[in-house]
Write a structure and sequence with these properties.
MetI-like fold, disordered C terminus, mainly alpha, single chain
């Protein structure tokens, strides 16, 4: 009986492995097709979408060159603005929300609880409800540049970050902070020298999630920024249009590939921290 049960368990594991492998293939397949079509001539992308590049359809790096030079707007500028917005927004979200979560957890007043629930509630508010008012407000307040739009991203990214950080901070023993206070650490030094290093699992998870969101975001920069002067990568890709709305799909696929490569590399390098951080923030709360 035990041998049969053991064999059934092994078969179950193999079946589950095969099932998850199929799901993985289904997720990876669209990315693979982007890679394949980025090296094909535009006509063949439309007519032979799922075919591999051949001598007739293969164009080498021509799609990448065309995508980076199309429309006269410097591709390097788009990359620079995307990097600036992503780095500044992520750093601002991480610093502000981690400190806010620590304060909310340790002070634990009615006001702090109200702020926490407002942050959680903000996650269910659709962006479409706010986008037109937000666009006008950003223009009036001067938040329509790559160096000021991170303030807006802070407002939209604070909900998830505060939720995860609060869950983790609740699991940090208060005795450690009290010992730091006895040794002469003030609140800021206690947070940055003691609490923040202990937040590493959730810190890395929030950084990855927020960075991927900001890097790939199209709608918020399109509504807020002056797109004649500032174009992020998603906006640059959207402008790969010819006359009468025609789109060069080969060049589009090439730029999509360039835009997702940094995200994939960053995600693969840090993926082991995501589950740890999410589980820590969820269970310890």
């Amino acid at each position: 009986m035990k041998d049969n049960a053991f064999k059934m368990a092994e078969y179950g594991k193999k079946a589950l492995t095969a099932f998850l492998a199929l799901i993985s293939i289904a997720y990876v397949f669209p990315v693979f097709m982007v890679v394949v079509n980025s090296f094909k001539e535009n006509t063949f992308v439309k007519t032979e979408t799922f075919a591999m590049p051949t001598g007739e359809s293969f164009v080498g790096w021509a799609n990448f060159i065309k995508g980076m030079t199309f429309g006269g707007y410097p591709f390097v500028n788009s990359v620079m603005y995307s990097v600036v917005i992503t780095v500044l927004s992520t750093a601002l979200i991480i610093v502000v929300t981690s400190m806010a979560a620590w304060y909310i957890t340790r002070v634990d007043t009615d006001f702090c609880r109200a702020v926490y629930y407002l942050c959680v509630f903000s996650m269910v508010v659709p962006f479409q409800m706010l986008m037109f008012t937000l666009s006008k407000t950003a223009d009036n307040l001067g938040f329509n540049t790559p160096w000021t739009i991170p303030v807006i991203y802070l407002g939209f990214g604070a909900g998830l970050a505060v939720f995860m950080f609060v869950g983790f901070v609740k699991g940090i023993p208060l005795d450690i902070e009290e010992a730091a206070s006895i040794d002469g650490c003030g609140p800021l030094r206690t947070f940055f020298s003691v609490v923040l290093p202990m937040m590493k699992p959730t810190l890395v998870s929030v950084t990855i999630l927020e960075m991927m969101w900001v890097w790939n975001d199209y709608l918020l920069p399109y509504l807020v920024l002056d797109i004649t002067e500032y174009r992020t990568l998603p906006i640059h890709i959207q402008y790969l249009k010819g006359s009468y709305g025609t789109v060069d799909l080969g060049a589009t696929m090439a730029l999509i590939l360039l835009s997702i490569i940094p995200v994939i590399i960053f995600y693969l390098a840090c993926q082991k921290h995501i589950i740890k951080g999410v589980a820590a923030g969820a269970v310890k709360g």
